[in-house]
Specification:
The protein is of the alpha/beta class and about 550 residues long. It has 3 domains: about 10-215, Substrate Binding Domain Of Dnak, Chain:A, Domain 2 (Up-down Bundle), CATH 1.20.1270; about 220-350, Rossmann fold, CATH 3.40.50.2030; about 370-540, Rossmann fold. The protein has helices at about 25-50, 60-70, 80-100, 110, 115-125, 135-160, 165-180, 185-215, 240-250, 270, 290-295, 345-350, 370-375, 375-385, 405-415, 455-465, 485-495, 515-525, 535-540, and strands at about 220-225, 230-235, 255-260, 275-280, 300, 315-320, 330, 360-365, 390-395, 420, 435-440, 440, 445, 475-480, 505, 530. A hairpin with a 2-residue loop joins strand 11 and strand 12. Helix 2 packs antiparallel against helix 3 (about 80-100), helix 2 (about 60-70) packs across helix 6 (about 135-160) and helix 7 packs antiparallel against helix 8 (about 185-215). It binds iron/sulfur cluster and FE4-S3 cluster (SF3). Iron/sulfur cluster binds near residues 5, 7, 8, 11 and 23.
């Protein structure tokens, strides 16, 4: 075994990638990411010591942690050189935090190891998740760290838009430091649940950041076809990157298309003023190799999910932010609050033919909490009259696995008096089906990106209030969630914190859940694996 990673849903045999990631991550990148997490634990230990001594740890440390955690999410960073850069920065940050408490202790290896770039690979093989021998302890630590990765990503998105919360950063320190200690099972479960609480705080912060900057999402039709000018395709979750790109390209004679998780950008009022933001191209992340080839123009990956780059578009794909791939041009970060410089992408577009059309038609989205609450009377009437019998939350991630056709089949076979609430790239399994509407309310309501699952929770809590219920589980809502990467782990923990029970999770339960830890989730939250389509639909309609 030359590496070990089991953080995503596509991990080999649902047990672990041991030679190379199914995602395409090579062993050196995987091991260096382990070393980065190890070093973050060291920063956390020093931050705890500093705080215990009364020192304040600057937000810049928490911000660095968020970025570094984000770097290790599936389909973000495939470049061992780049991960090594981040480890070097982490060692410097660790020194900075150590100086805050006078420099003595803690003596855990994470807090004390040192090395130079040429020694990182040697060190990295000794610090991965398998160094925790007890499989239940390993599982609970993994669940916590993966939840933190998603929190890190969402906190980073919020920080990019100027919103930070020191309490989120303090939880990074508490949680990462905890994984270096022998804690009781109850204490570890407690931290996992606290991660759910912090996940809600973080997604709320990001929601505030997005809506303050770009307005509240509105019902919007998004075009799926193409125009006859050269195009730039932007993928990932970073709305500020989109803003910078749209500003710089508005008079350049090129169009901008969204891909994957960037689709919900069309729903924000602030982006509607750009005539050259023309539509969405293609489907979920895993279809990108084919779609990027036929797009013909340059592609910008702002966050996950990137997959290994094919020759067909190697010379016209760009990364930015935490995303990196060996040999691919990387657009540097903003300087002093300015804009990123996307001129190389715009220049590249001018030389390219227009995109090859893949499909025509439109899809409708923009049902984030403010829009749904604005429609609340209509929704409540439909529930009271029996026109809507049940809401099915089908948020989360899409992925390559064949078993994910389950979600399309559920959408197709749900009774006509149900409404699907969605967020995240999971929607691509059913957002182009013609499922009709109920008295003008579309049967698929898309709230936005995976982080906008928060919006779905706000909607559920609002309905709970309107119907004067004392328990969210008494609403006519079922949760049938799809997961792939660690942001979905964060969303899941957030839902558990909000008291949601009986979530169906698929296409498989996480490989990092040991049988005992899975049992804790089943016993306390009634989490269940997805089953067969008809059986699950019948159970959900019966409120089970
Ligand atoms: Fe395997 Fe997923 Fe880890 Fe990639 S991220 S190495 S596919 S477990
Ligand atoms: Fe999708 Fe990667 Fe998870 Fe943001 S883009 S939901 S998988």
């Amino acid at each position: 075994m030359s590496m070990f990673c089991y953080q995503c849903q596509e991990t080999l045999r649902n047990a672990g990638c041991t030679k190379r990631g199914v995602c395409g991550k090579d062993e050196s990148t995987a091991n260096l990411q382990d070393l980065l997490i190890h070093t973050l634990k060291g920063i956390a230990l020093h931050a705890e010591a500093a705080r215990a001594g009364g020192a304040e740890v600057p937000d810049s440390v928490g911000r660095f942690m968020a970025e570094a955690l984000f770097t290790t999410i599936t389909n973000v960073d495939f470049d061992p050189e780049h991960v090594s850069d981040v480890i070097e920065q982490a060692l410097l940050v660790r020194d900075q935090v150590k100086a805050l408490h006078g420099g003595s202790g803690p003596d855990h290896d994470a807090a004390t190891w040192t090395g130079t770039r040429d020694t990182f690979a040697g060190k990295a093989v000794s610090v991965g998740v398998l160094t925790t021998e007890n499989e239940d302890v390993r599982s609970l630590r993994a669940l916590l760290v993966y939840g933190l990765k998603g929190i890190g990503a969402y906190a980073d998105h919020a920080a990019v838009l100027g919103r930070e919360n020191s309490a989120i950063y303090a939880f990074f320190y508490e949680a990462l430091a905890s994984t270096t200690r022998d804690l009781s099972v109850d204490d570890m479960v407690g931290l996992v649940l606290k991660a759910g609480e912090v996940a809600v705080t973080t997604m709320a912060l990001l929601d505030e950041a997005n809506t303050a900057a770009y307005g509240h999402p509105e019902i919007t039709e998004v075009d799926l076809g193409v125009r006859n000018r050269p195009g730039i395709l932007i993928s990932g979750h970073d709305l500020r990157d989109l803003e910078d790109l749209l500003e710089q390209s508005k008079d350049a004679g090129v169009d901008v298309y969204t891909h994957g998780e960037m689709l919900p950008a069309h729903y924000y009022p602030a982006f509607k003023k750009y005539d050259h933001l023309v539509g969405n191209y293609g489907g979920a992340w895993w279809e990108q190799q084919k779609e990027f080839a036929s797009f013909n123009g340059p592609i910008l990956l702002t966050t996950n999910c990137l997959v290994p780059v094919k020759d067909a578009y190697r010379d016209r794909i760009f990364t930015t932010g935490r995303v990196a791939f060996p040999g691919i041009d990387h657009i540097p970060d903003r300087q002093n609050g300015g804009r990123k410089d996307f001129s190389a992408i715009i220049e590249s577009a001018r030389k390219c033919p227009p995109p090859t059309q893949l499909e025509t038609g439109k899809i409708t989205g923009g049902f984030a909490h403010a829009q749904v609450v604005a429609l609340a009377d209509k929704v409540v009437d439909a529930v009271n009259s029996g026109a809507i019998k049940r809401f099915i939350v089908m948020a989360g991630c899409d992925g390559r696995q064949k078993g994910r056709s389950y979600y399309t089949e559920v959408a197709e076979n749900l009774p006509d008096d149900t409404v699907i609430l969605t967020a995240g790239c999971a929607k691509y399994r059913y957002n182009k089906l013609d499922l009709g509407d109920i008295g003008g309310i579309p049967r698929v309501l898309d709230a936005g990106q995976c982080n906008d699952s928060y919006s779905l929770a706000v909607v559920a809590l609002k309905l709970k209030e309107i119907f004067a219920l004392d328990d969210i589980n008494k609403l006519p809502i079922s949760f049938d969630i799809a997961w792939y990467e660690q942001k979905a782990v964060t969303v899941l923990l957030a839902l558990l914190h909000l008291g949601v029970k009986g979530i169906r999770l698929g296409p498989t339960l996480p490989g990092f859940l040991s049988p005992n830890v899975a049992k804790v989730l089943v016993d306390n939250f009634d989490i269940k694996p997805i089953g067969d389509v008809q059986g699950d639909i019948a159970a959900m309609m019966a409120g089970r």
